[in-house]
Amino acid sequence: MAAERQKTAGEAAVAKAVKAAQKPEPGAREKTAAEAAKEKVERREAAEAATEQAREEAEEAEAAAKKEDPRTAQEKREGVAAGTIETSNLKETGPDSGKSSEQLREEVEQAREDLAETVTELGRKVDPRPNVEAAAESAKAQAGAAAATARSNAVPIAFGAGLLLVLLIWLRRR
């Protein structure tokens, strides 16, 4: 083990040459911390870009392979040709599986009619014109009732108005 740790003369010379190559030339300035950090970020971004490109290429290759043979793994094992449908695999399921096409058409038509009625009813509820007209009719009825009450009680109302007028004049003179 100790022999493995010791370097041969050739390995030592190579290590010395590498170290010398890494030293800056005389007169050249050393990198600042900001420059070193910038280079590190650039190297990281380059590595990330390369990784992303490799991932995209792998996805494209996978998509191309799938385009060539769109069969599932089970279809490949069973030897089913691409683009074929075996009628033995088709099954009708669901609540409508036992109904004829005419019955299904009738149900669809009934559902359309129900939907049309619902939409019409909602339109009536949301339309402001009938609501405004109803409010106007209600206001007219209330105004008519107030006018009828005033007509039937004209003498007491006139007496009250006169009394109020006398009171106001008396307060002004005081």
Strand and helix map with partners:
Blueprint: H1 2-5, H2 9-22, H3 33-68, H4 73-78, H5 101-126, H6 128-152, H7 154-173
Q: From the helix content, strand content and strand pairing, which structural class follows?
A: mainly alpha
Sheet with the most strands, sense and barrel status: none
Question: Helix amount, in percent?
Answer: over 70%
Order of helices and strands: HHHHHHH
Categorize the overall geometry: flat
Strand percent estimate = under 5%
Mean pLDDT across all amino acids: 77
Low-confidence stretches: 1-5
Give the N-to-C terminal Cα separation. 126 Å
Q: Rounded to an integer, what's the Rg over CA atoms?
A: 48 Å
Helical run tally: 7
Beta-strand segment tally: 0
Task: Explain this structure.
- 75% of the residues lie in helices and 0% in strands.
- The protein has seven helices and no strands.
- The longest helix has 36 residues.
Short characterization:
With 174 residues, the protein is mostly helical.
Keyword list:
single chain, 174 residues, mainly alpha, disordered N terminus
